[in-house]
Structure formats: structure tokens, C-alpha cells
Sequence to fold (225 residues):
Amino acid sequence: MSHELRTPLNAIIGFAQVMLVEVFGKHTSPKYLEYAGDIERSSSHLLGIINDILDLSKIEAGQFNLDAEDIDLTASINECIKLVAIGDHANDGRFIVDIPPALSSIYTDPQAFRQIMINIISNADKYTPADGKITVTATPGDDDATIVEVADTGSGIAEKDLERVLEPFGQARGNVNLTHQGTGLGLSISSKLMALQGGTLVIESEFGQGTRVFLTFPDKPAQLI
Fold:
């Protein structure tokens, strides 16, 4: 399924990008560029959905393999922020990273960590107004665990909806204009990836008052050794 779904979409995205940069000459009408952009964005969005569904299927089938190592926590978080904060928010102080030197590294799967952090940071960015703040911090937990917290000043989640946002396809944020931008799989996948490595994902939020996500990474859990 992975090959059958991804291969044709990658071809569509590639040819759309070729048209966007006008490799074979200028288009006769600017409408062609507009349509090529629509094709590229829609195809990329669909590819993201397919990737999420396939990842969720692999996790639930017990076929998602983790390969852990010590990673630089600050550098990894900043890399994820750069991928999310494209354009105006890249260097405007919207994102604050505060990682103590004593917690400079954690033992985890780099790809899984990147996927988890991008899911959570992009959610925070999506639901936080332009003048809001998103803060990523780390504190020590029990038994040498590391707790990474992502806090935003966004729209928040009602208490009755907190459980639902961790379910596949669950969406419960306050801004209804944004619900079409994702499948609601990101938090569910992130929660399952944390569980795979013996960790936890906990959300605290209040509607209209922002959201805090706590990721607890155990110190070299047996699942990853």
C-alpha cells in the first residue's frame, strides 16, 4: 500500500513543481502557474495524510521499529521549529526554547522524536495567534526521565474534549476555520510513539487559555535498548 499510494503522488508533486519553476519555458497564462500551485499543495497535503495513516497502521500492527540513540535536545527542537516556522514567524521571537545544560541530550529514536515534535509544535503554531508565544522547555522527571513541555498561548481545548484529541481523527480546537487543515492524526500518532518507547504524552488545556503538552522520555527504557 505504501508504494502504490506514495509513488503516483510523488510523480504528481514532482511534475507540478516542474511546472511551477517553468523549466521548459514561460507559461502562456498566469492561470497555469496558479493551477500548478494548487496541484502541488493539494498533492502534498494528501501525501501527508497518507503518510500519517500508514504510520498509524504500522504502529497498531506492531511494525514500527525504533532505533534509539543519544540526541542533542536543543538542536533537535530548533530543527523542528525551523521546519514549522516558515516565513514571518521564523525569527520574530514567537518561539522560545529553554533547555538546561544538564538536560542537553535524551535517548530516543531521532526520527520518532522529530515526528512527535513537529506534530505538537505545528499544532501549537496553527492555533496560536500571530502575537502569541510558543515555549519549549525541559525539566527532570522521576527515575532520570526528561520531561519536554510545549506550551502555547493559543485557543486552547475545552476540558470535555481533551480525551478526544488523542483519538485517531479527533479534532477539538476552538478555531473551526482551521479544522480542515489536518486529519487529527498527529496527536494520536505522537501519543502512540511515546508509548512505544515507554514514555507518555499528557495534555493540559483550558478553552481560550492556551495548551501545555508534556512529553516524558524515560532514561534509556528497555524498549529501546
User: Anything to note?
Assistant: The CA atoms of residues 20 and 33 lie 6 Å apart. The first strand starts at residue 69 and ends at 72. Residues 173-180 have pLDDT under 50 and may be disordered. The beta strands are 69-72, 95-98, 105-108, 134-140, 146-152, 200-205, 211-217.
